[in-house]
Amino acid sequence: MKALLIPFKNPVHAKSRLAGLLQADERRRLSWAMFEDVSRAVCAATGPDRVVLVSSFEPAIERARRLGWEVMVEQSQESESASIDWASRLLAECGFDTVVRLPADIPLVEPQDIDELISINLGSQGAVLVPSRDGTGTNAISRMPPD
Predict the structure, then answer these.
(1) 21-61 residue pLDDT tens
(2) Model pTM?
(3) What's the rounded Cα separation, in Å, for the pair 121 and 124?
(4) H/E run at residue 64
(5) 99 vs 10, 11, 20, 85, 127, CA distance in Å?
């Protein structure tokens, strides 16, 4: 089984690199708008067996539940990597063999992008990293096994 895992941190702390350009409320609204864009793409994708949000931010949790996604509620948020690792371990324990991490703020993602990434067969173990356009970050990661 393949799960699409979406981490969402509290938007109060989001987009801090834009602090010189945007006020805190603008960064919060941008973060939420990007989450809504990703949500639309995810809802139109057909590949994931399950969509899972990992977050402690109540509005995102409520939105995910309305969309029919599973939610893993964090007690605290150390880092995105810690959130992903924790959720991936739990998904592996539930029988998922592949987890695809998709950031909640990935720009311009389309449903077919998600389906194409989910459809990659990694064999018995492996990983696929989708680099950011500028090559300085990772836009998505598929891992088999999840942990």
Answers:
(1) 888 888 889 899 999 999 999 999 999 999 999 999 999 99
(2) 0.90
(3) 9
(4) helix 58-66
(5) 22, 24, 35, 10, 10
